[in-house]
Amino acid sequence: MLILAAILTVAFAGLAGRLGWLMIVKHGELAALAERQYSRTIALQGARGPIVDRHGAPLATSTPAESLFAQPRGIGDPVRLAAALAPIVDVPARDLHAQLTSGKGFVWLRRKLPPAVAARVRALNEPGLGFLAEPLRLYPNRELAAHVLGFEGVDGGLEGVERAWNEALAGTPGRAIVGRDALGREIAAQQILTPPAPGRGVMLTLDQTIQYLAEREIDAAYRRTHARAAMAIAMDPRSGDVLALALRPTFNPNAFLDVASREVWRNRAVTDPFEPGSTFKVILAAAALEEGVVRPDDRIWAENGQLTIAKTIIHDWKKFGWLSFSEVLQNSSNVGSMKVGLALGRDRYHHYMTAFGFGAPTGIGLPGESRGLLRDPQRWSPLSLPTMSIGQEVSVTALQMLAAFGAVANGGTLMQPRLVKAEFDADGREMRRIEPRAVRQVVSPETARTLSRMLVEVVEHGTGHLAAVGGYDVGGKTGTAQKLDSTTRRYSRAPGVLSFVGFVPADEPRLVLLVLLDEPKNEKWGSEAAAPIFAAIAAPVLRYLEVPPRDATPIQIVTGPGADDTPRVQLVSTTAAPVGGVMPDVRGRRLRQALATLEPLGVGVQVDGRGRVAQQSPAPGERLDPDAVARLTLSPDSARAGAGR
Questions:
Q1: Whether the predicted pLDDT of 575 surpasses 60
Q2: Model confidence over 192-231: pLDDT tens digits?
Q3: 644 vs 612, more confident
Q4: 345 to each of 155, 235, 383, how far by Cα in Å?
Q5: How many CB atoms lie within 10 A of CB 599?
Q6: What is the spatial distance between Cα 490 and Cα 407, in angstroms, rounded to a whole number?
Q7: Is the CB of residue 596 less than 8 Å from the CB of residue 472?
Q8: N or C end: fewer C-beta atoms under 10 angstroms in the chain?
Q9: Would you place residue 551 in the very low, low, confident or very high pLDDT band (cuts 50, 70, 90)?
Q10: Cα–Cα separations (whole angstroms), residue 78 to 104, 187, 204, 447
Q11: How would you write 368-394 as a 3-class SS string?
Q12: What is the Cα 317 distance to its own chain's centre?
């Protein structure tokens, strides 16, 4: 008995010592091992900050969603579960089975499920499955400004503003613990260790309405011409604010993985350089005028359309004789431009090309921006100077070209293109503002004014006549650039890059706009293909911006009390234009927008009240008599009702 008691005492002492060792000395290590086996700490994404346009209209938002996970050790029949889940979450059954049999403690099966899909998964009532809340990124306008916005993936922004401003938009992640027992039953509620913090919002310089107008017209042209690609970019030359950037082909960022080619995601306005062709003659003209090499009225012999340089015969698109320098630009004469380039000289021309921003990124802040191609003058051949004078042997991005024209429109001052105006916090308070930045004074204001007048002549009497906008002076230049044939190493005769770049109104520009078609199938010249698109976009944009036409007659406003003692405004305006046509529908519009619509019709206007147009007479569609007077009744209620018009 004593021996047995001694054995039992030693055994219990050993067991107590072992328990003490495990429960006290090894407690931390074993607890961590248990947690790794049956629970996991998961990072929680914060709500991504919104992206809005210059007026606060949402372009990208976040909404709550749920992500599906599994703990494979708690899965009883992975084959059956994979077969049941596959059609619901749209993941191949073999991929689900591989995850469910991985032996890991935790695996994501599908991130950010729509609510309806999450409800169907819950209805399976399967042990070993669970959900965690994660924000879902939504783009309410679908394809609108898709290349500017980009899109978000599991690891953050992948393209566009979403990628460039990912650090600000993403916020701070949180942490949560997920725990289940060996049978997959939940043993504790998901515990939030650190709640995630929402990201900051970003306000863009884009205007949603102008973006829509640009996309509408560029999409129609892309389909009509069967072009390889098409784009339109609008900018305010005074600040460098990019108001619209529309590209085709495009994609829906809500379903960006559905596109057949990932090249569609690329923002070609900043990533793809091209030879600009005749639009680059404006850069030559600015340099030559600034240096005093030529004046607008100086006569140039255009050699009847044929010039020999370095044993190479260069042909003009038309046989020209004597032309003034203004006419060289109006008629886009290659021979005349080359002669001016030779007079300007290699080094001076290169200086102004770099001063206008070519050969360097614009600094807009979008990923993948190209600097284009501008070789050092020491590497130029005898043909380089004359061919660069007509926009060959130099590659530019569309945004560089737009910014350079913006400098001409802005009195010679080059502005850095600006896409982001400000950052704001979750409560809408502005945290940081990005101010417009002047890069440099490229040419004098006098040179810019002289060149602007010459560009107006291009539209009024030259190759850009289809870009004219009624009531406004437009300055601009057409471009028809051939592409190098990769097999012959010569310029192809097939249509290449057709473009038009211009600004309006020419005397006080509010809009500079580039339109480009890449390899259209049924158009040959930029003057025929791109110039009309410029006019189709610029006309409604000017009305939207309430820019008065050049011949608008000053209006007289008389104020006084109405019948009900409320303020009343009576306004009468007449123009010299003949009355004709039918009465348009101006209901819901601001007064200035309504007047801009009615001004070309030459009708008198009488206005009562304040706000937006609530009622009008004559009614929409009625014929207008020679002595017609349009009576508009304004109302603040109509201002609220028409806010989305």
A1: no
A2: 777 778 889 999 999 999 999 999 999 999 999 999 999 9
A3: 612
A4: 52, 32, 12
A5: 21
A6: 33
A7: no
A8: N
A9: low
A10: 13, 21, 48, 76
A11: CCCCCECCCHHHCCCCHHHHHCCCCCC
A12: 35
CB 423 within 8 A of CB 200: yes
pLDDT at 562 over 70: no
**Residue 586: which of 628, 631, 545 has the closest Cα?**
631
Percent of the chain residues topping a pLDDT of 90:
51
**pLDDT interval class at 492 (50, 70, 90):** low
**Burial letters for 415-452: b for 16+ Cβ neighbours within 10 Å, e otherwise?**
bbbbbbbbbbeeeeeeeeeeeeeebeebbeeebbebbb
Distance, in Å, from the CA atom of 380 to the CA atom of 386, rounded to the nearest integer, reads 11
Residues 529/467, Cβ–Cβ less than 8 Å = no
Phi, psi for residue 352 in degrees, rounded to 5 = -75, -30
Q: Provide the token pair at 333.
A: 């004469």
Cα–Cα distance for residue pair 455/121, rounded to 1 Å = 64
| Average pLDDT over every residue of 274-281 | 94
- Look up the CATH superfamily of 41-204: Penicillin-binding protein 2a (Domain 2) (3.90.1310.10)
**Of the listed 278, 389, 395, 499, which one is catalytic?**
278
pLDDT digit string, tens, across residues 10-25: 999 889 888 888 888 8
Strand partners, 353: none
pTM for this prediction = 0.76
Total residue count of the chain as it appears in this document: 645
| Range(s) of the chain covered by CATH 3.40.710.10 | 208-255+273-544
**Topology of the domain comprising 208-255+273-544:** Beta-lactamase (3.40.710)
**Where do the H-state alpha helices sit in 21-77?**
27-38
Q: What is the pLDDT of residues 330-348, one digit of tens each?
A: 999 999 999 999 999 999 9
Tell me what the mean pLDDT of segment 288-304 comes to.
94
Q: Which CATH number fits domain 556-641: 3.30.10, 1.20.120, 2.60.60, 1.20.1070?
A: 3.30.10
Give the separation between CA 555 and CA 549, rounded to whole angstroms: 13
Per-residue model confidence (pLDDT) at position 257: 81
For the segment 457-466, the average pLDDT, to the nearest whole number, is 92
In the chain, CATH 3.90.1310.10 covers 41-204
b/e sequence 210-238, b meaning 16+ C-beta within 10 Å: bbbbbbebbbebbebbebbbbbbbbbbbb
Check if 278 is active-site: yes
pLDDT one-digit tens code per residue, 188-200? 445 677 777 888 9
Q: Bridge-partner residues for 633, per DSSP?
A: 608, 615
CATH 3.30.10 in the chain: give the residue spans.
556-641
End-to-end Cα separation, the chain, in angstroms: 101
The one-letter amino acid code at 130 reads G
Q: Which runs of consecutive H residues, i.e. helices, occur in 558-599? A: 591-598
